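Suppose a colleague, Dr. K., hands you the sequence of a protein chain of 274 amino acids and asks what its three-dimensional shape might be. Before reaching for any lab equipment, you can write down a predicted structure in token form. Begin with the sequence itself:
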Amino acid sequence: MRRLLLAAVICGAAQGAYAADMPDLPVLRGSYSEGLSTVRTVWQGYYIGGQAGVGESDMKFTGATRDIAARLLSGTEMEQQQNISSWPVLGKGSSRGDGWGGFVGYNSQWDDVVIGVEANYMHGSFGGSQTGSMTRFFTLPSGYTDSVTNQASASMSISDIGTLRARAGYAVGCFLPYMFGGLALGQANIVKTARVFGTQNNPNVAPPFDVVPFDDSATDVRRSRLLVGYSAGLGVDVNLIAGLFLRAEWEYMRLATPIDTSINTVRAGVGYRF
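The predicted structure, expressed as tokens, is then:
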């Protein structure tokens, strides 16, 4: 019994001496989780990076060729009576695309709050196309019965999009979730075609004017058209080591053009903070 008691006293003394020699770590004070939470990333400074993403373009082509059809029918009785150029021959269209690009920006940090500005660029293949037609029969005051078809097609190819953003985030350890909004710019090629054709019949008129066929068309091509709009979205930056970080992001972009367009993209990137 004495031997067991002596061994316990020696073991306890040795354990106390070992603990006295250990550094003053939070885990020894019972505050291990608190010690980890105080470790955070400093996001202040300039940064640069690259990215790639996929997205979907939603376009409203309604009325896209109205101006062309109006020029083709200018001064005609059928346009004055039936307003053919305003017929809803085109509708909505959607298509998917992808792209790649880069970003550069600056962050200011107050405790865990991070505010910054960023220029963001994507080069890719966004946009889409739509075709449609409408045919109607009607009689004009002049006595002619018309069979008219308004046929239209429109396409838009967006090759470059960029945003100038204001960002606001909240640092949580090595994570920086953020939201952003700002000015959006794009460059696109837009092609619109309108064709109006049919026949006019009047049995009370002498030939060859009793049956009058017509077929008129025109195409409007605009290359490198500047698009202006706005963007907004959410994302998260994750610090890996030193200034190296990963990024995941969703962006909504609305562009005010002759063809009303919105683009949703999801992106992944890698950057370096200086």
